[in-house]
Design a protein that fits this description.
The structure is a single chain. The protein is an alpha/beta fold and 349 residues long. The chain contains 13 helices and 8 strands. An 8-stranded mixed β-sheet has the order 6-5-4-3-2-1-7-8. Helix 3 links the parallel strand 1 and strand 2 (99-103). The radius of gyration is 19 Å and the shape is globular. The relative contact order is 0.17. The structure holds iron/sulfur cluster (2 copies). One iron/sulfur cluster binds at residues 278-280, 294-295, 297-298, 326, 328, 331-332, 335.
Length: 349
């Protein structure tokens, strides 16, 4: 499957996606997200501090998952340069940020990935890496990634849409489930997911269609039972994440006739208790070319912090960032539905 960009698809343009997000409030009974926040006294949405730097080190990926909000794939060539990574390190050094969350694409395909991880660990910050598992087998030079992760005590976060091949492969591609299990076995072999090893392997579940996830706790128990009993693999926690109505999932919603009804579903499940814990309030997102965003989703919609005067990681201004207004639109309903959704799973426990 090609990325939307390689297909010259209209939804590869952030402007078209934003237009659709605006149109849905006119054509369906969707209250603009901004208005919803206003009625609850949460608008403008403000940060609570900056604890996490989430760095998207590139859109290149060995997979082309159907729901991917990054529109990543083997045909995407955007990769963060060493210079921009140095600027990220400098920002971590000077800002008091405690966690670096590396994402992509497949982050490991960035040629500077291992160097960057080593530098981050030397700074003493917590490092998380969003590994799609199959990248370990995409080339033999990646086969030793589990040992590398363990050596640097990186927290590994891996998507696994379901605990069987059928649902996983439908979303992520033929053979992905089997390769993911094989990768988990290698991670387990070096200590990941094992009690007392201190090496954390968390999995991410997202629905394989236009519906919301069931409860995280229940799903985690099911995943643990089946993956252990049937495949002899273990992990620490399961994060449930709501599919965002942007990019390739937006394309799916439109072509399957589910766009308006999905937005209505998200709106109906709006939970005010999630607003305090929205990840945009304590996280900064950096794109492959170094610009700053409120979150990875705003990044894909090209909603830059600073708007006309976009802010770059090399000019990090913490005073401005802590006072800024977070940019919101209808896609934000994806983060506030039910127990909430963030890169760390449910927001309300
Ligand atoms: S593995 Fe992740 S980044 Fe790559 S295509 Fe799938 S969802 Fe997108
Ligand atoms: S998409 Fe979610 S994390 Fe991003 S700005 Fe909206 S509410 Fe915040």
């Amino acid at each position: 499957m090609k990325s939307l960009l390689a297909q010259h698809h209209e939804l590869s343009q952030s402007g078209r996606q934003l237009q659709l997000l605006d149109e849905v409030v006119q054509s369906a009974a969707i209250t603009p997200f901004k208005e919803k926040l206003k009625t609850l006294g949460f608008y403008p949405l403000k940060p609570t501090g900056i604890d996490i730097l989430q760095i998207n080190v590139g859109k290149l990926c060995n997979q082309t998952c159907k729901h991917c909000h990054v529109d990543a794939g083997p045909d995407r060539k955007e990769i963060m340069s060493r210079e921009t990574l140095e600027q990220c390190l400098e920002a971590v050094r000077t800002s008091g940020i405690s966690t670096v969350d590396i994402t992509g694409g497949a982050p490991e395909l960035n040629p500077h990935f291992r160097w960057f991880v080593k530098e981050c660990t030397q700074l003493g910050v917590k490092v998380m890496n969003r590994c799609n598992l199959t990248v370990i087998f995409s080339n033999k030079k990646y086969n030793d990634l589990p040992e590398f992760f363990a050596e640097h005590k990186i927290e590994v976060v891996s998507s696994l849409p379901f605990y069987n091949a059928d649902r996983t492969d439908r979303q992520r591609g033929e053979g992905v489930f089997a390769a993911s299990v094989k990768a988990m076995k290698l991670l387990n072999a070096v200590g990941y997911g094992k009690a007392a090893s201190g090496l954390i392997l968390n999995l991410v579940y997202n629905p394989t269609g236009a519906f919301l996830s069931s409860g995280q706790q229940v799903l985690e128990a099911q995943f643990k039972k089946v993956l252990h009993e049937e495949f002899d693999v273990v992990f620490n926690h399961l994060f449930t994440i709501t599919n965002m109505p942007i990019s390739r999932f937006l394309d799916f919603l439109i072509t399957s006739g589910n766009y308006e009804s999905y937005l209505e579903k998200l709106l109906a499940a709006f939970n005010p208790a999630t607003v305090n814990g929205l990840m945009c309030r304590n996280t900064l997102s950096v794109s492959w070319d170094g610009y700053l965003y409120d979150c990875d989703f705003n990044q894909m919609l090209d909603l830059k912090i600073g708007e006309g005067d976009a802010m770059h990681i090399k000019n990090l201004d913490l005073n401005y960032l802590n006072r800024r207004e977070i940019i919101v639109s209808q896609h934000c309903y994806g983060c506030t539905a039910g127990a909430g959704s963030s890169c760390g799973g449910e927001v309300v426990k």
